[in-house]
Amino acid sequence: MLGSLSFVYTNAVGETKQRRLTNWGEVGHYIKGFDETAGKVLTFRKDRITEYIDVDDIHAILADPYSKPPPVISNKAAPDLRPHIVFTGFSAARRAELEQMASDGGLRVVRSVTQTLVFLCGGSNAGPMKLEKARAQGVYIVDETAFIQLVATGVLPDDAVEALQ
Question: Does the residue 47 lie in any domain?
């Protein structure tokens, strides 16, 4: 965690606000810290940050200050071009249901964390090694609720913050 960080953030509905975080840290595609205006810890997607304020060299303090947005999914995409997803930490029956939803919703289901993995959906029994490997590769880590929203809308929701820490 570092001192304070100020930036301009545009959320999914187009609202743009200046934010200031204290005790912040970089977590994959997100910046997480105490937002003084909100009075609580919040997490922000880095791809939605339009400007960092009063920072001489943002690359000196963030590994990836301008991460790419997650892909929009579509069941019309060719199977080989669909973003890859893996499910971990679910019962076999629930995993099979989620995998079918993913496949029907435009995602390609894989069985392990690979170099082409885009999303990891984790349940309550998700293994820490698999999560750590996915984090190291810059994978978007979501819980079941965020996954269902992703499949329903085709877009990763703003509040789909890595809950599996």
Answer: yes
Alpha helix ranges (H) inside 6-165: 58-61, 92-104, 128-136, 144-153
Are residue 88 and residue 35 in the same domain, yes or no? no
50-94 pLDDT, tens digit each: 999 988 888 888 988 988 888 888 777 676 788 999 999 999 999
For residue 46, what are the domain limits? 5-60
Q: CA of 63: how far to CAs of 25, 50, 120, in Å?
A: 11, 17, 21
Residue 32 lies in a domain: yes
Measured between alpha carbons, how far is residue 54 from residues 21, 31, 33, 64, 159 in Å? 13, 17, 17, 17, 26
- Residues 56 and 84 placed together within one structural domain of the fold: no
pTM of the complete model: 0.73
For tokens 């892909």, the residue is: 71
